[in-house]
Amino acid sequence: MNQQKSGEFLKSLRRSKNMTQEQLAQVFNVSSRTISRWENGTNLPDISLLVEIADFFEVDVREIIEGEKSEMMNEEVKDVAEKMADYATKEKSQLLRGIQILCFVGVIVSFLSIFNQTKDVSFDMIDKSVLFASISVFIIMAVITLYVTGLLEKFISNKKKMLIFIKIATIIAIVIALLRVILLTTIIGLFFTEILLTKPEVHTDIENYNAYMSFSNNAYEKGVDTVWTKWGMDETIWPAEITSSMKVDDFKMVYYNPWDAQFLGYLVVDYNPTDYEKEVNRLKSYESTEYIGYYSVTKEETYELLAVNADSYQGFVYALTDGNGRIIYGEQIFCNYFMDLAYEQYMPKEYLLDGFNASIDNPYSKAQEIN
């Protein structure tokens, strides 16, 4: 049993329902920390909960244990594929067999393209020109496939006319394919242009502190429009509010979304002795997660680590202290195993966890690709 794999599977099931860890915890009457440990692979749900979890997500218990959905190939599709492969006779040359395979693949790909464009989409929302091009390519590829496999010989007696038709159809198919390549290149170009033009939002207005925190801005309430959802990460390590007795030395919250939302923030507070002791006790009572090894993070030595919520995919929320009344709250929340944001330009390095590396080519990301 691969607990890490099972945890990632549970996380994907939760995200498919657009639920936060806190919301899922309420469903199964457990703490959000428990959900986090399940998803991090630290622990697995009790056997008494597995059936309830499987029913809730409409999956099999075995799939949760194995960490993936079981899918069996449709026998009818398999049978058709085997018959098509048999059309290539021994008298055909190696080149002709290659052409037959390419044509068959072209039919499947063009069919899947049509299917994906029309799946779960109303007719009014379909791009008619793209759909027409896809159907044209499918028909042309189907005719070419029938021809090179010899099936049209039973219906077409004049092969010279058929050859002319095939040539014309091939030219049309090439033209359509080139047009689609040009369209795709244009879309990609516009995408990268948008990335280059998108700038990070930097906020230092401490008076609006709660508007940036997902636990207090009603981020997941119906009708609430805010970007500060933080991918469902638990931020309750940070203070519930800024009080008059708290001396805020520094504060910054950064939002960047060139494609996927990324969040970076820190809050530095100098507490009076009484409040400092209370806050330290609160943070030490927090059920921290494992964090060493994620994104090359090592054991914290620059400051004393009071609490941490680490996710192997989406980053960190934590609190540090110098032991003299100052507490530093920090967070780096992102996805896809790296940050596009140049985080060291917006956050002092000493406020990052020791060893933290979420650059585009970071070693942790490469290790995940290998795994």
In short:
By secondary structure, the protein is of the alpha+beta class. It is 45% helix and 12% strand.
Which descriptors apply to this entry?
371 residues, alpha+beta, 434 Repressor (Amino-terminal Domain), 3 domains, six-stranded antiparallel beta sheet, elongated
Q: Roughly how many Å apart are the termini?
A: 16 Å
Annotation, overall tally of beta strands: 6
Q: How large is the radius of gyration?
A: 28 Å
General form: elongated
Oligomer: single chain
Low-confidence runs: 72-92
The portion of residues assigned to helices is: 40-55%
Briefly note the structural class of the backbone. alpha+beta
The share of residues in extended strands comes to 5-15%
Number of discrete domains: 3
**Strand arrangement across the biggest beta sheet:** 1-2-3-6-5-4
The biggest beta sheet is recorded as: 6 strands, antiparallel
Mean pLDDT: 83
Q: With helices defined by DSSP (H or I, 4 residues minimum), what is the helix count?
A: 11
Task: Please trace the helix and strand order, writing H or E for each element.
Answer: HHHHHHHHHEEEHEEEH
Question: What would you note in describing this structure?
Answer:
The protein has 371 residues and is of the alpha+beta class. Helix 1 crosses helix 3 (32-40) and helix 2 (21-28) packs across helix 3 (32-40). Helix content is 45%, strand content 12%. A hairpin with a 3-residue loop joins strand 4 and strand 5. A 6-stranded antiparallel β-sheet has the order 1-2-3-6-5-4. The radius of gyration is 28 Å and the shape is elongated. It folds into 3 domains: 3-66, 434 Repressor (Amino-terminal Domain) (Orthogonal Bundle); 75-197; 201-370, no CATH class. It has helices at 3-16, 21-28, 32-40, 47-57, 61-66, 75-86, 94-118, 128-148, 159-197, 273-285, 363-370, and strands at residues 201-203, 247-256, 262-270, 304-311, 315-321, 326-333.
